[in-house]
């Protein structure tokens, strides 16, 4: 995986699949690529965050569709599946049954999987967040999910550069 100078100079076809693993939104990937070269990692992360904030509702829904349910493992063996497993490592099996029920209620209400930047969160913390977010109006919740996508993308960009 490239460091920042390698990221700045790599051919876009080499980076495009890695960036899509960070956030599966083609317009976001294009914006991150177009902003190169970045002076430092903070500039890259700021540009990535701005691009993620500008996603349309349809782009957010499409990006969410690539994520597994919280408490479930992603399929495949690519970097996104490995990153997802690492990000959800704090979600204990003890909360799995309650998370499954809460996930089902969330999906019924909003029509997409619940998404949270789970790194560092316990299963109980995730469950509390999911339960609280069930009270959001659908439009508000989609924007909350958009912010979570941006946070996940930033985390994963850091992994791309390490």
Automatic annotation (TrEMBL):
It catalyses: 5-hydroxy-2-oxo-4-ureido-2,5-dihydro-1H-imidazole-5-carboxylate + H(+) = (S)-allantoin + CO2. Keywords: Decarboxylase, Lyase, Purine metabolism. Gene3D superfamilies: Oxo-4-hydroxy-4-carboxy-5-ureidoimidazoline decarboxylase (1.10.3330.10). It comes from the Bacteria. Its EC number is 4.1.1.97. It comes from Saccharothrix xinjiangensis. Residues 8-157 form the Oxo-4-hydroxy-4-carboxy-5-ureidoimidazoline decarboxylase domain. InterPro entries: OHCU_decarboxylase, OHCU_decarboxylase-2, OHCU_decarboxylase_sf. This is 2-oxo-4-hydroxy-4-carboxy-5-ureidoimidazoline decarboxylase. Pathway: Purine metabolism; urate degradation; (S)-allantoin from urate: step 3/3. GO terms for molecular function: 2-oxo-4-hydroxy-4-carboxy-5-ureidoimidazoline decarboxylase activity. Pfam families: OHCU_decarbox (PF09349).
